[in-house]
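Blackboard transcription, Thursday session:
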Amino acid sequence: MAVAQRSRTSSWSAVLKPLLGQGALIALLLLVAFAAFRYEGFLSAYNVSSFFRYNSMFMLIAIGMTFVIVTGGIDLSVGSVAAMSSVIAALASPYGLLAGLLAGALAGALVGLINGLVITRLRVEPFVATLGAFLGARGIAQLASRQNAVSVDQNGTFTKLGQGDFLGLPIPVVLTLVMLATGMVLLRYTRFGRYALSIGDNEDAARLMGFNVDSVKLGVYVFSGLLAGLAGVILASQFGAGQPVEGVGWELTAIAGVVVGGTLLTGGRGSLGNSMVGVILLGLIFNVLNFENGKGIISIDVFWQNVIRGVFLLVVVVMQSSRLARDNH
Amino acid sequence: QGGALPKLAVKPKYRVCFNQSEMDNPWRLAQTKSMQDEAKRLGWTLIFTNANGSAAKQAADVRSCIAQRVDAIFLTPREEKPLTPVVLEAKRAGIPLFVIDRKVDEKVAKPGQDFVTFIGSDFYQEGQRAAEWLVKETGGKAKIIELQGSTGSSPAIDRQKGFADYIKKYPGIQIVASQTGNFTRDEGRKVMEALIQAHPEATAVYAHNDEMALGAITALETAGRKPGKDITIVSIDGQKSALDAIIAGKLGATVECNPRFGVKAFQTLKDYAAGKKVAARLVNEDRFFDKTNAKQMLASAF
Amino acid sequence: MTEDALLHMSGINKAFGGVPALRGAHLKVMRGAVHALIGQNGAGKSTLLKVLTGAYSRDSGEILFDGQSVDFTSPKQSQLAGIATIYQEVNLVRLQTVAENVLLGHEPRRYGMIDWKAMNAQARDHLNKIGVNIDVTRPLASYSIAVQQMVAIARALALNAKLVVMDEPTSSLDEREVETLFQVINQLSHSGVSVIFVSHRLDELYAACSDITVLRDGQTVYEGALKLTKLQLISTMIGRNVQEVATQGQTGFVRHQHEDEVLLDTRQMRRAPQVQDISLQVRRKEVVGIAGLLGAGRTETVRALFGAEPAHAGEIHFKNRSVRWKTPSEAIADGIAFCGEDRKHDGIIPDWSVRENLTLALLPRLTRAGIVNRAEQQRVVEKFAERLNVRCASYDQPIRELSGGNQQKVLLARWLCMRPDLLILDEPTRGIDVGAKAEIQNLISELAGDGLSVLMISSDLEELIEGCHRVTVLRDGRTVAHLSEKELNEESILSAMAHGSAADPASGEQERVLVNAGGTTSGGLHDGR
Amino acid sequence: MMVANPKLPVQRPTVLLTQHSALLALLGLILFNILTTPNFLTLNALNINMTQTATILIVAVGMTYVIATGGIDLSVGSIMAISGAIAPLLFISSGLAPTLGIPLAVALPILAAGLCGAFNGLLVTRFHIQPIIATLVLFIAGRGIAQVISGGQLINFPDERFKFLGTSSILGVNIQIFLMLIIVIVAVWVIRSTLFGRYVVAVGGNPEAARLSGVPVVRTKVIVYTISGMLAGLAGLISIAVNNSSDANLVGQNMELDAIAAVAVGGTALSGGKVSLFGTMVGALFIQLLRYTLLVKGVPDSVALMIKAAIIVIAVALQYRRRK
Ligand SMILES: Nc1ncnc2c1ncn2[C@@H]1O[C@H](COP(=O)(O)OP(=O)(O)OP(=O)(O)O)[C@@H](O)[C@H]1O
Ligand SMILES: Nc1ncnc2c1ncn2[C@@H]1O[C@H](COP(=O)(O)OP(=O)(O)OP(=O)(O)O)[C@@H](O)[C@H]1O
Ligand SMILES: O[C@@H]1[C@@H](O)[C@H](O)OC[C@H]1O
Ligand SMILES: [Mg+2]
Ligand SMILES: [Mg+2]
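(Written on the board underneath:)
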């Protein structure tokens, strides 16, 4: 945070401040406008709702990840946890919607609790602790599923969670909005949230100010685990199966989304809204690439797609970081 | 799910989707190439998507094809169960869908009813054919190291099961170690290096695909063994480099699992559009390669 | 009397990895008393206070607080018991707003949710009480160390504690802020709150404190009413007899004759917004002071000079060459050294040893063909660490384990060993005990005699007056006065700092220095615009 | 005045013990194998474990440098793939004589890999992008680039000349092991004794203090990422040489995790400013031997994952205990 200390905002930048650091939002709006103009069916109800139905999983995970990152930590286990929770939810799905939901979410929270305990009690760095859970949760997923996808109960209500609608909105989206609102309130209006920010900013200071740093951290990892668990529940419900091998690389998607949204990995700052923008932006590039292929004009070669995704990420973070840098000078 | 299969009009050219599951091995590359080549030959528009190994992403890809209202969808599902819901979604959206290579959950989405047809090989049978050859070749006496495919993938599951079921009847045949090599040459090699160390008594190797078998050969040679002489190797896929290894006397045999779906898949679509009767399952007739035919077949392998 | 004691710590032992920091120290604080705690750098003051608040665990000893035997295992517990603490290193959260920093942990809440409006209002109140009037909704990091220190004080006061512990609260403050603080402390003491006050500025103690405890080498060597003379205090502190100390004088400066050749000459240097228009000169062997109120832009000026945040406009001439250093390494290569004010943030490398920290800037010169010459490194370290009396277990000890004052000495040594032509010092003796301070000042004089020029920011007017050939006064980012040796006295500096006419009156419009004396007597000094 | 007596030997148990905990774990694992694994005490077993460690360790050395500056490099696996994709172009399809083609096939890919690393360094320094994200760019795009270069095809090497990088030996020691040891020794020496090495650690310890002390922070970081890239490039070459084929889709997959785990288990703080290359070596050997052990014991994948998780966490936790 070398820059922060010397940052003194002038009245000029105070006016522009709301606009600064919004590189991701601007990129998102541009991309949507471009795609809506260029592709037929892009803004169709079907495309929009199925886009969010799928990306709600990443949005959920990014909500938890934002909390973790705000404390200066990181959670690499979310992808494995989602896979594990999807298996557990699938196994519990014959007992009804609620059973599946709770089983999956709580299993996730439990892994989060273990992460939190390892980090606070054993003093293992978050990166390593959650790397452990990244491996361990995958092991549990494979063990519980006997290494094969687990069908959810097709006749019960459990599949509604992922495939149904509520008030015209896909249920995963409703769930995400609820968690997002909860997260926003937590972050802004509760001690838990404010302490989380403080810890990421200066952990020693937070300790000396008399906070219970460890329990806040514990809470943050439990929350992240819970949300990853929820993502797993959606995964099982939406695709009809618990999937022990799913979720590979989701942690990077979530981290990238959070950072693209403008949150610093060094902690102390973070905005859930921006994280959502980041995740949606990163998800949208896949959707847009698929539509672009459908134009049949410059059918993008298979391997160039990865290059394009990387370059796209590059452009967005460069935009974002130069704005942040300007903000800081 | 009720309702008939969506109809498909006869057109000179179609706009179709091909939803690939991953692009990380020669088999998948050959499969994709065959689809692209055929589309190019016919002048159709092929929307290619790559799920990078994620079933959920693949489902989202299928949906983006539905959103684009393509004429038809070719889905080569990463996994059975997670892709089943979108197969039904395509039907609801009135888009005919063809499943190729791996299956979807046919208890929920039935071929010929919910989607047009399944075109592919029978992985279980592949495992059985490999076992059959190995039993014959070793005279019913072998200590086997098994290199499994990616944990949880349907070819790995079925090939293991088919093989295991077949050798049950032969008490002289036993599997002394079985670990995943993730369908890749590098991991196949590393795993074999360790396993042959711990199980020098092994006399045979069963690899779920050729890549791992080729890795195993390297490992065995480094360990001072003579693949093809003091250790018998059988695998699945039938790719060119595997046939080369058969010719060199290192690999014993390989069961073909042909990735070239292009011609067959597109022809089936045309047949379907023309109103011809399309069977609910079109199982590939796969060949079997060993030293008796490897040389002749080399040119036609992928 | 014991029944009147709010706090009684006795027989406190604490060692770090086998090295004792406290050896049976004791401390007794009466109700409503303002109690001074002094000692040389590394005597164990901060350690004793951290043992009290539960930030460190003690090895043995007893603590009675408010009539009860206590054993706090975390700062949270001591806070709940009624002890509010301002730690030596400003320990706040820099990215959060000022208001949060004042009230974190006891935020006003409605329906269980934080009430931001009330929080901002309350924070503003608390700050106003100590004469600080700033925008509480801005991040703490946007304010200088001094403001941050005031915020830390406001936070401690907001806790409504029975005991307020202040570990060097005044090290970054200028005289007016100190004065305001003392008034607050007075009020506290009248309302029955006790205060423990650590400071190396001995004069302050007489103004504020009734009782005193002196620590030396982790032991309590004196406790009682503050009736000793300053000389006696110093001799108790350093364990030498009064005569010996008396001969050392007040500051350690000896003024050598400077040369006429101008070494550094800046004209209209500018880096908006803090540095507006700076022109100053330093001659060879000259010690030039920079004075200014909090926020006058002193730190920014020297940082701009040094290339840390390079100037945008203006001219800089160094050794008769026009220069514009864009990075510190360029400035260093040309013979400049800069020892900053924020030791924790831009000074020490915490995990590095004393040896490595000391030689960091010198490394390129200790290197032949890319390889560091360790023997030479060791020689430099020994020479300068001994010279500055750095107190540590060994030169391999990580610097973070040293007391604050000793860390500062290592940093000074880092630059002195460079033998620069111009040494820029931003608050060089902050947090340094009297003995060491004199040594450092001595050293500065001596080096100036050998040809070194010094540009020194200090909030300690005495230091400026006694040590400098000239003082340049800044206000609102502009040089407003150059005071020659003859003109140097407290009044002239103070009046230039407050009233000095800025070249461009329009600059007064800027909302800048928002710290004012809040209705106290010296308020007039702050509304000079 | 109690001034330091630098002649007094002072206990600094920290450094030694942190390394010891990983070392103890490694020794424990070796002992366990000696007692329970048949044929473990053979030259062959040693050879397998050392060669399988080589690529991880070579990458982990670069990773240690990057982490020492407070960064991280996720792109190493993709960079391995890029270098692995370029090499065959030079010695197979370029039509160059082998005497030229083979040396070029070693030099140019490593150069390209260095450029990739420099690119990372540029993003981190000039564009102020956080390392995890800066290197995520090449993590994603890099594999695409490798795939584009190779047309995504697995390339089998018709001749065995390139194999020397994987299987040849010098004085009876496999070249991989040889390279690995040389790289570790040089890296240790550089960190300990050279100006650059000290700068690397200073930058991680307190970047602002380093900058103000004249340390060329930007240059140091760029060089560190470049080194990490070049070492990944070398590892990529070894990897394709061993397999006698290059597969852009797979070379170096998950390498970043193995390398980071080796660094962490070895006791280098991920927050930067502290390095233990010896620890990294122990960490890499430990992770490899753990994998080997679980394999030869026939532990199923699922259980193996859980055991690995537990052991990594415990190893790191023990270091903290000892540090306290
Ligand atoms: N965390 C630590 N680890 C090891 N040694 C420490 C640690 N903290 C303090 N010390 C040692 O304890 C002794 C007392 O330090 P302390 O910080 O209490 O001094 P102080 O009286 O507050 O000095 P100053 O006036 O410089 O602030 C010093 O010798 C210091 O090196
Ligand atoms: N708009 C503002 N409102 C309040 N304070 C401001 C404003 N702009 C600048 N300041 C303060 O003025 C200071 C100017 O910078 P600088 O630190 O260089 O002053 P200084 O004279 O060195 O004071 P210090 O004694 O704190 O070092 C900033 O630290 C900042 O806290
Ligand atoms: O062997 C093939 C495998 O490599 C691929 O992933 O799936 C289909 C299999 O036949
Ligand atoms: Mg102190
Ligand atoms: Mg200043």
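Lecturer's comment: The pocket of adenosine-5'-triphosphate (ligand 2) is lined by residues A 8; C 134, 143-147, 274, 292, 294-300, 341, 511-512, 514 (CB under 6 Å).
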